Amino acid sequence: MKMKKNNTFSEIRIALQEADNILILPHIKADGDAAGSASALLEIFRKREKKAYALAAETPLPSIRTLVHERYRTEIPEGFRPDLLITVDCADIDRCIDRVKNFPDVKILNLDHHGTNTRFGDLDYVIGNLSSTGELIYSLSEALGYKITKKAARYILGAILLDTNRFYYSSTSSRTLEIAAEIIDRGVSMSELCEDLFGNNSKEKMKLLARAIDSSTFFCSNRGVYSWLPRKVQLEAGTDNTDDIVEALRDMEGVEVALLLYDYKGSLRASLRSVGDVDVSKVALAFGGGGHKNASGITFTDHDYEKVLRKLLRELEALLVRKS
Ligand SMILES: [Mn+2]
Questions:
Q1: 3 inside domain
Q2: Of 19, 128, 134, 227, which sits most exposed with the smallest number of CB within 10 A?
Q3: How far away, in angstroms, is 135 Cα from ligand 1 center?
Q4: Which domain covers residue 283, as residue numbers?
């Protein structure tokens, strides 16, 4: 399959100039990169006197509320008719189709950093191995000569911090760190931002994490680990916020692949994490999901947990065996 090329900066500039009403779409179950990137764009467009809103699929999680702009909504304001849609951090159109489908004739600008991005936009700007969509928006805004305010810069730094797990992942380049440094130079306090983002775990979330760790099972000579959080367990813990749980599984000694299966809004979801050369995006793609080499996800239409788990474990084991 031949990969569609990125549009040029001048093509993107023209599309943005022609648009007066812009609707920004973060992916379903928006994470900090999606929400922060959408918020940064809202702030950048406000400065350029464009009418823009972000339309999210759900209310943002409390843990990322600090990355949410006033114009980030869950309902479209009355009378607002977009003439351009911008999808942020969406590897494929399924991640935002719930909202895109309401605007069949509106052009899409697809901004993303997932290597598996299907380039579904009328215009695409995708850089596959970048730390975050936040970093992509920073570089794009600079290339277009758009002013990045302190407020926008803070959203971007939050997006970068979350998607790199505080500069832990290999997607953190020297340029990522330079951008973070430039943002600090604009007066953004990284420690205050970190406190907002990482220092507010709810008891419910920690309880759910404890349940996941407690019920985890190792496979492939302890090189892999999985856990399962059905709706019932989420209700008992008092939250459906599964953020950071799969990372905690991955960070156990000797683990190369971690899998978290969980019920999410009526579907069964799998989050995959890996370390080093183990490429879980291959497994995700094989099941209709997507993501990055070390972090991918899949939404299953099949609700049979046992069957899905069996299939996934078979593929993950094969992946680990091939690597060793
Ligand atoms: Mn991202």
A1: no
A2: 128
A3: 9
A4: 203-323
